[in-house]
TrEMBL record:
Gene3D superfamilies (alphabetical): MFS general substrate transporter like domains (1.20.1250.20)
Subcellular location as annotated: Cell membrane
Membrane-topology descriptor: Multi-pass membrane protein
UniProt entry keywords in alphabetical sequence: Cell membrane, Membrane, Transmembrane, Transmembrane helix
The name this protein goes by in its record: MFS transporter
């Protein structure tokens, strides 16, 4: 394990996820073009992404069950082909219903990909490497957002809508071929996959995963850290920067690229911290949420346009959300037995994307009610985030207490923060 072959398998899965992120975020750079092509209001435009996220979130638990039943390769391959079909459909769509159906296909394929790629890490790598590789998978996959922000946007604003989305579909087909040729769930000689669980066993596993406080801690972790940056990059970031802050289109694309670059740097640092200090993971998560809320507060209190340097700071802080959300998957991994980790990871993944679809929808509704893409309307729309952050923080604190109590009852020593600090000082 950990050989060149393991890294080749992981890299192939990472490629499929990276292309999936490009598919997911492609509508973010095409939002204003889509509004013109389909005659869509802000509320209807948000409906595209909300429906995509709704499909994604609603399929997370079923995907976890399917993963435990059929394995990662089948799901990653199916996901790549579904997303390619969705992008090809969108490329040719001239009516609103067909365009919406295309984004549904993208959401369904996207749902199959990420947790399936994560599931192979335990089989191919030593446990000590898994937290860092989980972070790298999530963060390197965000390079797909750069593909949306730069080359896809260049094709969109050059040759046009149809060539841009047909190119995206073609890249999706290439990633599917790579998965078919290279991707494997486990090394040769690994134990044969157990018999598929019965429907009753599936329901029992789902209940057991949800009842585990560690799973719910992961759910609220993913929820609180992920939604702000996701909605910014997926749909409303470019319209907000261009129409709400007066930033040029090229500068907005550069800021989305910065969002990805900072996340890639932060991811391994977060993964290393998580692996070394498993009882301090929640402090990292809470810090990310508080810092994100505080930065948005400063930006929203200043009448637009705010200084460009402050928008850069906002983007840098938003970039910490994705690596923070990866900690939620680490909770699912460490608090659940291997037989139901797919289901637990699926539950965790629902958290952030459910919050994202709520925010994406509400932002669109607020913009429509307050007159469209105006600076004042955007300031009011982004304020909805505070409700979601409050819910997530309460959930993290409550579930952390329950999870630690269960660990102590089972005989695990859980040091307090004061004991942790004292120990670190002693080592220094």
């Amino acid at each position: 394990m950990g050989s060149w072959r393991a890294y080749l398998v992981w890299s192939t899965g990472l490629l499929a996820y990276l292309v999936g992120v490009m598919h997911r975020t492609s509508f973010g750079v095409a939002g204003l073009d889509a509004a013109e092509r389909f005659g869509a209001t802000p509320a209807v435009l948000s409906g595209f992404v909300v429906l995509q996220l709704l499909v994604y979130a609603s399929l997370q638990v079923p995907t976890g069950v399917l993963l435990d039943r059929f394995g990662a390769k089948a799901l990653v391959l199916a996901g790549a082909l579904l997303m390619a079909a969705g992008q090809a459909t969108l490329a040719l769509a001239t009516s609103l219903p067909l365009a919406i159906a295309a984004r549904v296909l993208v959401g369904a394929g996207d749902a199959f990909t990420f947790i399936s790629v994560l599931s192979v890490l335990n089989a191919w790598f030593p446990a000590r490497r898994v937290p860092v590789l989980t972070q790298l998978t999530g963060l390197l996959g965000q390079i797909g957002q750069v593909l949306s922000a730069v080359p896809l946007a260049a094709i969109l604003h050059g040759p046009g809508w149809t060539p841009a989305f047909l190119a995206a579909a073609g890249l999706g087909v290439l990633s599917a071929l790579a998965v078919l040729a290279v991707f494997r769930e486990s090394p040769p000689g690994s134990p044969v996959r157990p018999d598929a669980p019965t429907p009753r066993e599936v329901l029992d596993g789902l209940r057991s995963s949800w009842r585990e406080p560690g799973t719910r801690l992961g759910f609220f972790t993913h929820m609180g850290t992920q939604f702000s940056g996701t909605v910014f990059g997926l749909l409303w970031g470019v319209p907000y920067l261009v129409a709400g802050q007066g930033v040029r289109q090229g500068t907005a694309s550069a800021l989305l690229t910065l969002l990805v670059a900072v996340g890639i740097v932060a991811g391994p640092l977060f993964g290393t911290f998580t692996a070394r200090h498993p009882f301090r993971r929640s402090y990292l998560v809470i810090g990310v949420i508080v810092l994100t809320a505080a930065t948005w507060t400063v930006v929203l209190l200043i009448p637009p346009p705010v200084p460009l340097w402050l928008l850069v700071v906002l983007v840098v802080v938003l970039a910490l959300g994705p690596p923070g959300s990866m900690v939620g998957f680490d909770y699912a991994r460490t608090f659940n037995p291997s037989r139901r980790q797919g289901t637990a990871v699926g539950i965790v993944n629902v958290g952030g994307f459910s919050a994202s679809l709520v925010l994406a929808l509400v932002v669109g509704l607020v913009l429509s009610v307050l007159g469209g893409y105006t600076p004042a309307a955007f300031r009011a729309a982004w304020a909805v985030q505070y409700v979601l952050w409050a819910i997530a923080l309460v959930g993290i604190v409550v579930m952390r207490a329950q999870a630690r109590r269960n660990l102590r009852d089972a005989g695990t020593v859980v040091p307090t923060l004061r004991e942790f600090v004292r120990e670190r000082r002693g080592r220094a």
